[in-house]
Design a protein that fits this description.
- The chain folds into 2 domains: 50 residues, no CATH class; 85 residues, Enolpyruvate transferase domain (UDP-n-acetylglucosamine1-carboxyvinyl-transferase, Chain), CATH 3.65.10.10.
- 24% of the residues lie in helices and 24% in strands.
- The chain contains 4 helices and 8 strands.
- The strands form 2 sheets. A 4-stranded antiparallel beta sheet has the order 1-2-4-3, with helices on one face. Strands 5-6-8-7 form a 4-stranded mixed beta sheet.
- Strand 3 and strand 4 form a beta hairpin.
- The longest helix is centred in the first third of the chain and has 12 residues.
- The two termini are 21 Å apart.
């Protein structure tokens, strides 16, 4: 369960002890999110986010890391997120994320393995997914 803990904070309970959750916490930490974890409770405070980048070193360890792109764009209007690379369990495209953001009006550029967004106004009502994926 996630409970708002202030304007830029949230608290969750019953958080599983999984590698992907550890990776997500580490990624958010590198961006400047203050994190407190006690047993199955996690509190996140994003009031002082200092970086809008998810580097390849972080994203390569978990394909779902690309999902930080949308929230960064929604809150800050900019982001630089590495493409995650290959997948050991088969083809899982991540282009639905960038195409969805483009459909909403975002100017997305892929340069040197990074998805970068140029500031613009996005329309949430303009997006329709072509396929269901784990990262959409």
């Amino acid at each position: 369960m996630c409970i708002p803990a202030g304007r830029n904070a949230a608290a969750s309970s019953s958080v599983a002890a999984l590698k992907d959750i550890d990776t997500t916490i580490k990624l958010l930490d590198t961006m400047g999110v203050k994190i407190s974890r006690e047993a199955d409770k996690v509190t996140l405070d994003a009031s002082e986010v200092a970086s809008f980048e998810a580097t390849y070193e972080m994203v390569k360890t978990m394909r779902a890391s690309i999902l930080v792109l949308g929230p960064l764009l929604a809150r800050f209007g900019t982001a630089r997120v590495s493409l995650p690379g290959g997948c050991a369990i088969g083809s899982r495209p991540v282009d639905c994320t960038s195409k969805g953001l483009q459909a909403m009006g975002a100017a997305i550029h892929i340069t040197h393995g990074y998805i970068r967004r140029v500031p613009c106004i996005c329309r949430i009502d303009a997006c329709k997914a072509r396929v269901t994926t784990w990262t959409w």
